Amino acid sequence: MKRNLISGRRIMPYLLMCLTFLFFSISLYAQNIITVEGQVLDKGTNDPVIGASIVEKGTSNGTITDLNGNFTFKVKPGVVIAFTSIGYKSVEQSAKSGEIIVYMEEDSKTLEEVVIVGYGVQKKVNLTGSVATVGASKLESRAMPNLSTSLTGLAAGMSVRQGSGNPGDDGANIRVRGIGTFDGNSRSPMVVIDGAIADINSVNPEDVESISVLKDAAASSIYGSRGANGVILVTTKKGRTGAAPRVTYTGIYTQEKASSSFELLSDYADYMELFNMAQLSS
C-alpha cells in the first residue's frame, strides 16, 4: 500500500505537466482560427449571389453562400480566400476576423464562350437548353487513367461512379441526370467524338479540347431516341497553323498498401480465456 502511494506521488507531477501542455496547445490552436462572416453581392445590381463557392486557396476547406448571400467561414488569419460563382469573375481576399462584404462582377466573357451543340456551335448566351461545358484545362489538372473518370464533379447533376479499380476495367458509369436518369435498357449517355459515335474511354484525356454535355431533350433532340439519356460531345485537339511544335509528357506514380489480415488465435485455450473475459465484462 505504501509503495503504491509513493508511485502515485511520482506520477502526479508528470500528469500535471501533460495537462498543462494540453491546455496550452488548445489555447494556441484557438488563437490561430478566426471566424470570417460576410455577404457576397452582385456589383452591378447589389443583389445577393446565391450559391457562391468560398474556398481557402490551396485546400478543400470551403463553404457556399445561402439564399441571402451570407456565409460563415473558419480559417487561419492571413490565408487567401477565393470567391467563385458561375457567370462572375473570381475574387480573392486575405482572411481577417469580422464581417466583410464581397462584390462580384459579371464575367461577360463567359456568356460569349462558344459551346458545341448537336447542330453546330452557339454562344452560351443564346442557349435555351441545358448544356454543361468542360474545358481542357480542367481535365489536364487531373491525374486520371481515362476520360470517363476525369469527368467526376465537373458537370452539375451528372453522376460518375467507378465500379472497379482493376487496370483495364476502371471505367466509370456516367449518368447525365444523376439517379433520375431514365431507367431503360441502358442508362448510359450517347457519346459522340468528333462527330462519330464512339466509346468515351477510347480517347486520351490529354487529347481533349472541350466536352459538352447535352442534358435535356431540347439540346439532344437531333439524336432522337438514342439521346434520351443525354449526349456527351467530345472535341479533340487539332494542330494549329503557325504554331511551333510542342512535346508534352504526363506521368502518374501510385503506391498502394496491401491490406493486413486479422490476427488469429493460436489455440482453443486462448479462445476460452478471451471468451471468459468477454463474459465477465458484459
TrEMBL record:
Any one GO MF annotation of this record: siderophore uptake transmembrane transporter activity
InterPro entries associated with the record: CarboxyPept-like_regulatory, Plug_dom, Plug_dom_sf, TonB-dep_OMP_SusC/RagA_CS, TonB-dep_rcpt-like
Cross-referenced PROSITE patterns: TONB_DEPENDENT_REC_3 (PS52016)
Pfam families recorded: CarbopepD_reg_2 (PF13715), Plug (PF07715)
Name by which UniProt lists this protein: TonB-dependent receptor SusC
GO biological process: siderophore transmembrane transport
Domain TonB-dependent receptor plug residues, every copy: 124-231
Signal sequence bounds: none
